Amino acid sequence: MRDEGDLVIRGGTVVLPEGTRRADLRIRHGTVVAMESQFTQASTLDREIDATGLYIFPGFIDAHVHLNEPGRADWEGFTTGTMSLAAGGVTTFFDMPLNSTPPVTDRARFDQKRRVAEAKSFIDYGLWGGLIPGNTEELTELSQCGAIGFKAFMTDAGTNDFPAVDNDSLWAGMDIAARLGAVVAVHAESSWITRRLTESLLSQGRVSARDYEASRPVVSELEAVERALAIARLTGCRLHVVHASSADVVRRIRAAREAGVDVSVETCPHYLSLTVADLEELGGVAKCAPPLRGRDEVEALWQAVRAGLVDTVGSDHSPCPPSMKEDPKGNLFRVWGGISGAQTALNVLLEEGYHRRGVPLETLTALTATNPAKRFGLYPRKGTIAPGSDADLVLVDLDAPWTLRQEDLYYRHPHSPFIGRTFRGKILATLLRGQPVYVDPSPANPVKGIGAGPFPDKPFGQFIPGKPS
């Protein structure tokens, strides 16, 4: 059954779709080859990890990341971004097409970004293509390049080179995507609602955190979602709604799915933990779009998670230099709208979901691994721990408390709304195809010896092409 030189992880509690199970894992050539209650024999050439007392999760698949390279590497890049993702338990991520310059809207730009990622990514990666007005003829080639899907903004994206789609452009793009079997992901906020409200508030000199939240109400999400759902129904397109901030949005999407629309929905850790009161206290570091909501929305979203209405969680890591998060006059409308969260997503889910609200670990694993793997055609190679799957694993001391410090963050600009917060659930190691891609450097880490340092000497992430249905 076994060749010499396998990796054996002994004594851990494995998180599976049906629950948790104490088991040993045997890994060969980057793949899980066996999972049993106990392996009684071992070769002298086997490498072993004693995971007694630890939980083993499948690697997090973060389908919503902005690493901004090439073109805006001073905001973030593949090296620092993927180091941070690995430290957060992520083994596969999908990079969004905007914020890099030029944005990924044709074959040449896709190939350019892929070449950069191949040289620098510490973890496996996929690339979204962009859907903007005027590039529908490029979508077929982007799909042939291996794009994981196409991303469209239904409101201002914040950068001049990635314009929002109008209804005609979205319809045309979704019609082509349907023929290709590709997913279209939409940032669903109504441009005309947010524009009118923003103009009205600014004309009154209202620029606070509460005013910003009021300028982008839940109804603006619902209006845009309704249009996207209607086009998906008419074209047969596979639709993915990103960063839903409200349970009302989630419930509307689930109703459409039950009516036959092929649609999924993502939310983010910040919507499951932070509120508009945090935006008031912290300022620009907690600004995002859609904005943070009230405490009632946080709790309603968790109820939707419990009910299985939310499909995936993505970090929506949207970094920028610190100067872009500040305005000398305290005008929240002027600062960059994006939260840096590549490294903390799993920790937020464990603290807010498992520890504080008793959400089962298998539910959280579905959101972070199984469901995104299935939605984007990676399952069962990714997204689960089973014989035949990639050995993408996260070793976690589930009850260990720790407090996030600025110096703990590996991404380029270490600002976060979670600095100073205490979490339970310490990520001790992340394995990509059986090889350590992150090892927590703390002296007390019981598995510290599996790596020479926090990260490998050279990145070895691989490109994961999209698989249209």
UniProtKB/TrEMBL annotation:
Enzyme Commission code: 3.5.2.5
> Which keywords, in A-to-Z order, does the entry hold?
Hydrolase
Top-rank taxon of the source lineage equals Bacteria
What EC class is this? hydrolase
Protein name (record): Allantoinase
Coding gene? pucH
